[in-house]
Amino acid sequence: MAEKQAFIFMSAHTVLQLTILLLLVASSESDICDGSRGFSGRPGIPGVPGTDGKDGAKGEMGDPGEDAVPISGPKGDPGISGLPGRPGEKGDNGLQGPPGPMGPKGEMGEFTGVDTANQYFVFSYKKSSRLQRVLPDKLITFEIPLISEAGAVFDGEGYLQVKKAGMYYISYHISSNNLVCLKIQVGEEEKVRFCDSPGMIMVTAGSVVLPLKTKDKVSVQATATSSIFSRDTDCTLTGFMLFPMNE
């Protein structure tokens, strides 16, 4: 019985080998020969789903419909104010406007000054007609009044004494020959000096504007050896007040 089973087993093994050999031969022949194919097999089991693909390109905006109504959202809150900008360039000057209306007439102010007939007075004196030599640092005495007002008068010492304070214009005319040097003083203070050397008998002159106070004394004096002769009104001292001043 054992021998019979072994024979069967060996026979099955041999049969398997023969079957495989036949399949190989049939496959080889099917590749070479143009025979008819068998029936299609059943569909296989679906595979596992693949991963999502990449996003496509953005499409163009569609046309709004005829009945589309735009909808506005609510107004947002104001943002934070930015930094101030740089100043712009200066513009051109505009055209000049028309003149404005005339203002109302002002009230008349109060007059505080004193306007009298002798407020702006004139004086003029001449030297004596007698011959007299004027020594250096000596006053020339103008003692004969031509025009005299209360504003300034000559005292007995040869000084012109001021009676009203103000700004004065004072001038002199002197007859002389050779050399004449004169100075105008207020009190003991020299204000101006003039020198002339005509070389013949002629009239020399000088003038000055001085601020004078009440009781100031004005004089004309020689400063060097002079040859001065008086003939009628050849030697005069004249002046007038330009305007009054406060003390």
Question: Which helices and strands, and how do they pair?
Answer:
Layout: H1 2-32, E1 122-127, E2 142-147, E3 152-154, E4 160-162, E5 166-177, E6 180-186, E7 189-196, E8 202-212, E9 217-222, E10 227-228, E11 236-244
Antiparallel strand pairs: 1-2, 1-11, 3-4, 4-9, 5-8, 5-10, 5-11, 6-7, 6-9
Overview of the molecule:
- With 247 residues, the protein is of the alpha+beta class.
- The protein contains one helix and eleven strands.
- Mean pLDDT is 75; it is low at 1-9, 29-33 and 111-115.
Helix content bin: 10-25%
Q: Judging from the principal axes of the Cα atoms, what is the shape?
A: rod-shaped
Structural class by sheet pairing and helices: alpha+beta
CATH third-tier fold name of the domain at 119-244: Jelly Rolls
Pick out the low-confidence regions: 1-9, 29-33, 111-115
Straight-line distance between termini = 177 Å
Strand content: 25-35%
Largest sheet: 6 strands, antiparallel
> What is the H-and-E element order?
HEEEEEEEEEEE
* Gyration radius, rounded: 70 Å
The CATH architecture of the domain at 119-244: Sandwich
Protein name: C1q domain-containing protein
Main location: secreted
Region (Disordered): 36-108
Biased composition (Basic and acidic residues): 52-61
